[in-house]
């Protein structure tokens, strides 16, 4: 079986299973919506600055990612389908399929969370394109890091609560950068163009995603094979 | 189980005596020799001899730990796992010491008059995060019982963290505003920063601290391997 075909098969399998049970989608969606309401109630009717709003948005996204993405490989262990995948596919195919599925999931979650924040907190978006680019690059980096970490978690005995401990310190470079760019995308009347000011940060985000995914591809074999 | 005996010969003993003597000279010279007087910095500039070399020791520990993690993945032996673990542990020790000496230094120079110990300077915050990564590595180790699996999974996490470390230690601190030397694109330590007479102590101090790291690390490895042998009976 050629590489693309195998990776695509894993992606399709995950997507189909997800559409049947809707566990991860529902968990992520409910997490985002309920924390959004929590934030809205806690803040009340007052106006929120773009700095606080972008920090809250990304904290919610990172926590939702830690809750919703941890099951990708644990579910395979529970269903007893690990051996089947190990027999039929090369490890990099499994990683690529899972990564693609997670990118899709996080991308959808980011879009929903951003739209929800803008509507509920009454924010005005200065640079829509920049915000979209940030959400997309953030999704790539977040999914890239979480895919390998969820594979690690599936091998550790006490899965769940360990994932945030392992993930959050590694996600801080991503978090700081996306918050900074989101802030610029929300800020009205910025002196320089928001795109020009964010060029370095967008390169950082791209580099983070690249480094994380490259390292994951190299290391995944050792997590996956016994 | 692998039962490598790590016995160190007389060469090692002479080397450790040498390190102890070297470090004594460095500490005495660092505290006693005269340094240029600068406003605010004053005598606290002596901290350069201790604070900065601690980061060299931390980097040395991270590199040793990563190298043994990679070698463990190539061929898993107990000794390589122990070496990766202990190098990370000693690196963390030097990291904590570097953070504390940095905090004290900042309190009496950057934040003099404000009474602050910590004001979220990017370099300080990011190194604190780097220490949290080490802590997470040890939490992960303790959560897996089977030794082979523990070694493999911990090695993967260690290498993954090392791949991200440059962002924490180099990229972000240079993008954010910082009082620390090395903010906004300049190198942390340039040729022109350091007075010639301070180099006479600084460079030996760097060598001394890296050697001190190596001494503690080799002793810890020996201890852990001895414990493993005892546990095997």
Write the layout of secondary structure elements.
The complex is a heterodimer of chains A (226) and B (233).
Chain A: H1 3-21, H2 23-43, H3 50-68, H4 71-79, H5 82-88, H6 91-120, H7 128-155, H8 159-186, H9 194-224
Helix pairs in contact in A: 1-6, 2-3, 2-6, 3-6, 3-8, 4-7, 6-7, 6-9, 7-8, 7-9, 8-9
Chain B: H1 10-32, H2 48-74, H3 78-108, H4 122-142, H5 147-175, H6 196-232
Commentary on this structure:
The complex is a heterodimer of chains A (226) and B (233). By secondary structure, chain A is mostly helical. Chain A has one domain (3-224). Chain A has helices at residues 3-21, 23-43, 50-68, 71-79, 82-88, 91-120, 128-155, 159-186, 194-224. In chain A, helix 6 packs antiparallel against helix 9 and helix 7 (128-155) packs antiparallel against helix 8. The longest helix of chain A has 31 residues, at 194-224. Chain A is globular, with a radius of gyration of 18 Å. Chain B has one domain (10-232). Helix content of chain B is 72%, strand content 0%. Chain B is built from 6 helices and no strands. Chain B has helices at residues 10-32, 48-74, 78-108, 122-142, 147-175, 196-232. The N and C termini of chain B lie close together (11 Å). The chains are: A mainly alpha (226), B mainly alpha (233). Chain A binds chain B through residues 145, 148-149, 152, 155-158, 162, 165-166, 168-170, 172-173, 176-177, 200-201, 204, 207-208, 211-212, 214-216, 219, 222-223, and chain B through 73, 126, 129-130, 132-133, 136, 139-140, 143-145, 149, 152-153, 155-157, 159-161, 163-164, 167-168, 171-172, 175-176.
């Amino acid at each position: 079986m050629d590489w693309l075909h195998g990776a695509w098969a894993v992606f399709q399998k995950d997507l189909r299973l997800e559409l049947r049970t809707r566990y991860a989608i529902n968990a992520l969606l409910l997490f985002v919506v309920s924390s959004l309401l929590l934030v809205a109630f806690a803040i009340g009717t007052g106006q929120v600055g773009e700095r606080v709003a972008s920090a809250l948005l990304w904290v919610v996204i990172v926590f939702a990612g830690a809750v919703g993405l941890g099951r990708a490989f644990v579910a395979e262990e529970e269903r007893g389908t690990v051996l089947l995948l190990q027999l039929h596919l090369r490890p990099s195919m499994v990683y690529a399929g899972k990564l693609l599925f997670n990118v899709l999931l996080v991308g959808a979650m980011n879009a929903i969370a951003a739209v929800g924040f803008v509507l509920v907190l009454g924010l005005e978006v200065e640079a829509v394109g920049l915000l979209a680019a940030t959400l997309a690059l953030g999704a790539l980096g977040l999914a890239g890091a979480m895919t390998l970490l969820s594979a690690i978690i599936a091998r550790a005995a006490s899965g769940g609560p360990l994932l945030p401990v392992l993930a959050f310190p590694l996600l801080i470079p991503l978090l700081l950068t996306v918050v900074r760019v989101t802030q610029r995308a929300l800020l009205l009347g910025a002196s320089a163009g928001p795109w020009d000011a964010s060029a370095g940060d967008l390169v950082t985000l791209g580099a983070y995603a690249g480094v994380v995914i490259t390292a994951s591809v190299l290391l995944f074999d050792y997590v996956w094979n016994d | 189980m692998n039962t490598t005996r790590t016995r160190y010969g007389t060469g090692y003993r002479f080397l450790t005596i040498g390190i102890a003597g070297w470090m004594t000279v460095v500490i005495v010279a660092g505290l006693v020799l005269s340094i240029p007087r600068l406003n605010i910095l004053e005598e606290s500039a002596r901290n350069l001899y201790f604070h900065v070399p601690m980061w060299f020791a931390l980097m040395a520990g991270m590199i040793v730990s990563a190298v043994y993690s990679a070698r463990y993945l190539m061929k898993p032996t107990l000794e390589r796992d122990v070496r990766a673990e202990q190098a990370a542990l000693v690196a963390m020790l030097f990291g904590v010491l570097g953070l504390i000496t940095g905090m004290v230094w900042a309190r009496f120079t950057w934040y003099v008059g404000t009474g602050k110990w910590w004001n979220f300077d990017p370099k300080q915050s990011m190194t604190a995060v780097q220490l949290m990564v080490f802590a997470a590595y040890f939490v992960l180790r303790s959560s897996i019982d089977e030794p082979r699996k523990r070694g493999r999974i911990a090695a993967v996490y260690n290498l993954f963290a090392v791949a991200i470390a440059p962002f924490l230690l180099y990229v972000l601190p240079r993008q954010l505003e910082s009082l620390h030397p090395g903010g906004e694109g300049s190198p942390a330590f340039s040729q022109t920063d350091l007075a010639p007479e301070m180099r006479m102590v600084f460079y030996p101090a760097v060598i001394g601290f890296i050697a001190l790291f190596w001494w503690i690390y080799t002793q810890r490895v020996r201890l852990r391997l001895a414990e493993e042998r005892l546990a095997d009976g």
